[in-house]
Structure formats: C-alpha cells, structure tokens
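sanity check this chain:
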Amino acid sequence: MKYRVYIDETGNSDLESSDNPNHRFLSLTGVIISLDHVRDRIYPDLEDLKAKYFRSHPDDPVILHRKEVMNKRIPFDCLKDEAKCREFDSEILWLAESWDYKVISVCIDKKRHKEMYKVWRYDPYHYCLAVLLERSMFYLERQRVMGDVMAESRGGKEDKRLKASFERLVEKGTDYISPERFQAVLTSKQLKVKPKQSNVSGLQLADMIAHPSRNEILLENRLIPNQPSPFAQRICGILQSKYDQQGGRVYGKKLLP
C-alpha cells in the first residue's frame, strides 16, 4: 500500500518580515493518507459534496479553498444562506472526522529564530520541511509502508525552491536522519507539485485544516491572543485524533525553534 504526504503552507519564509505579527509565523501541515483511501473514499466523498452544494462538474470542477469558502466568494456564495452554511459545515466536518489520515504540523516563530541565530540560520521553510519529513518518515516506518510527497504549486520560483529544498533533504539527510533512511521509505526523490486547478483532494483537505492547526499550536504556546472561529475550533477538536502520536507522545504538532 502506497501513501502520500500532502503539504500545505501557511505564511511565508521571509525572515525580514518576522517583526510583523501578521507574517511572523510560517507553518507546514502534512496530511498522510493511503492512496487507496484517497481513491475509494476521500475523492468521491469530496466530489459528491461539491456537486451537491456548488454544482461542481467533472469538466469544470470546483476547488475548495479555505479563504474563498470562509469569505463566501463565488462559487461559494450560496453559503451566505445561514441554514445552507450550517448544513455544509456539518457535512464537511463529519467527512473530515470519518476519513482515515494522519496530520503533522510544524510551525516556526521566525522572530525568535532570527534572534536566536545571529550569524547562521536555517532557511525557515527548509527547517520546517526537514522536521515535517522526519516525522512523516517515522510514521511510514511504523506502518511499514512507503510513500511520496506532494505540495500545491506556488509558481515558478517558489516551486523551484520547494523542489530544491526537498531534494537536498532526501540526498543529504538531516542531523538526525540519514539519506539512506529517507530513501528507504520514499518512493521518489522528487517533490510532486500540482497546481490548484488539478483538483487534488488531498491538497484540498490539507488546505482546510492547515490554518486551524497552526493557530492551535500558537494558542497552546501563548503566541496569539485570539480564539479561533467556532468552525476552526471544531476542526481542532477533530485533529486531536488525527495528529500522529505514539505511546502517549504527540508527534503531530511541533513549534520551532
């Protein structure tokens, strides 16, 4: 059985923006799913949901994107009807709870990172990706399965950066994980990058949970004052059983540095 780690990014990796509270934190959320489960459950469930509420069609599929859904922009404007919105929220939350997947979220406080390392610093994205891949590898090893990694396209230069960072980790390893160990569980040394329009259900799931997961980490560490929205709180409740954990220790949440 083959697995895939679907990655969603929240924030940006620019260290110079670290003093701005709105840009201080970068997080990567990985959703680890069996490709059989994607094919048999998640993809058809999600397509049925989008056809029911947003008239999604195979020739012109609607792509779920958290910001557009939250702002009820076309084609999600039907959610301006409060009853319809409650119905949709209830159904997608039920699906998010019923699907079988594991979550690993890694968040970096760029301001603290910049203050701690005055001379030499990890690139924040590379640092987050290294920790995310290490923990994903631990999960795949425990399941005795192999897998690959996919992220949503960010555009030409950004995609090159993502791919180069991934390849460097797989080829050179980290301080804790040898390249041989990475390569033993990864079926590809290349990061798969897909545009939003590709309608990848795993990436849409990652997009839905990445922001609530990041904010949960920040709230737990008292780095932001505001409680999440009721919908985000319900997502966080679901995630408690989805975060990777072993022997009472939670590996699915990590704040750096």
Observations:
- The domain at 2-256 is CATH 3.30.420.10 (Nucleotidyltransferase; domain 5).
